[in-house]
Amino acid sequence: MDRQKFIECFGGIYEHSAWVAEQAYDRAPVDVQDIDALTKALRQEVDSASDDQKLALLRAHPDLAGKAAVSGELTAASTSEQAGAGLDQCNAEEFARFQSMNDAYTTRFDFPFIMAVKGANRHLILAAFEERLNNSREIEFKTALEQVHRIAEFRLAAWFAENVPGESFCTK
Length: 172
Fold this sequence. Notes:
single chain, mainly alpha, 0% strand
């Protein structure tokens, strides 16, 4: 797969951070038909990035049940993930609580709350918010990056489920 096609296929795996796919492609050939090799290559780029790059990656993520979701500005992947956790069905009180928690979290840590929400619901997410607000910035930075990796793994799994390796690989 050439560089442009690789970035087209995998540039959105890490939210608004095509640099991850670009650097993975430039570093070494990646077997795009092996989900484990691809996951490892992309993760390695994030893990070896500077703290400033990692912070930018975290800041590229939208708030959960935030203003971008309400205004329809989320990526398709984020929209689907948040809807899967029922965040698109918040009542006014829940929405206000998410806004309050998003604000408190961002004020404390200087990046948005990030959680791989697949398999979760809004009650579990709010509980995680409350628990993680007590973390130190160092622990929360590491936790948020791990959540980013989990999101990427879920997105790659979904991508592989929709795309069959071979001639038509990466047609979507």
